[in-house]
Amino acid sequence: MNVRVLLIIICVAMLATGCASNRGRETKQSASVVDFLFPGNKESPKLEPGVALLKPPVKVGIAFAPSDAKLRSLPEAEKVKLLERTKAAFTRQPYVGTFEIIPTQYLKPGGGFENLDQVSRMFGVDIMALVSYDQIHFTDSNAMAMLYWTIVGAYLVHGDEYDIKTLLDISVFDVASRKLLFRAPGVSQVNGGASMANYSERSRAAQIEGYGKAIDDLIPKLTTEIESFRARLANARDIQLAPQPGYKIGAKAQ
């Protein structure tokens, strides 16, 4: 057998073995509102049953929950882009006065409601919308390889396939009473493939795309929850209103 052909066969076998050994790689980005507000809690948290006192138009702050330092985190610039996209759902409501995007750095992992109180005082907000995220990036090396002959020999290219599942969840709290007012989820799935030469770039782009699609799924649900909350403001037993001068309960959103 020709030595060059034998070497190519050996290389193909080694690469195929490498592909098999890399199957099933999984990476994760995650940040949990539950872990932030109820550190060490092993069960579903007990939410405050009390009454929230709102003084519309309220001041709303929004931030991503902080992630565990051991886990990879969504870049801050991408967080801000996602939060900007939720702004209209809040600010078109007459009971919302201002909307403040708060950098994650002001929230400490496991900081609890005490940390939330500090942030609300620092930024002058009454309501805090906290965003959880969970993205699992599953990679499976593609066993299908392509062998190209060039003028200087053979060139083997194999690809990687990715499957990225993303969950976003917004939980909106009245800071003073620690009462959950409403929440809304969004999910997405992105999959595809790329050659080894551009896999990292394509994979990173797909992860960002996953968050974008999840926020696309979340915003209509968030808008519905905000409208529903507005509709029950006047008659809700667990919410008391002390409107600021000039605010009219039941006014229509513009």
Count of alpha/pi helices: 6
Q: Oligomer, anyone? A: single chain
- What's the pLDDT, averaged over the residues? 80
Helix share bin: 25-40%
- CA-based shape: globular
Report the order of strands and helices: HEHEEHHEHEEEHE
Q: How far apart lie the N and C ends?
A: 79 Å
- List low-pLDDT spans: 5-23
Structural class: alpha/beta
Largest sheet: 6 strands, mixed
Strand content: 35-45%
Please provide a written account of the structure.
With 254 residues, this protein is an alpha/beta fold. Helix content is 33%, strand content 35%. The protein is built from six helices and eight strands, in the order αβαββααβαβββαβ. The strands form two sheets. Strands 1, 3, 4, 5, 6 and 7 form a six-stranded mixed sheet that branches. The chain has a two-stranded parallel sheet with strand order 2-8. Strand 6 (153-174) and strand 7 (179-195) form a beta hairpin. It starts with a helix and ends in a 13-residue tail after the last strand. Residues 5-23 have low confidence and may be disordered.
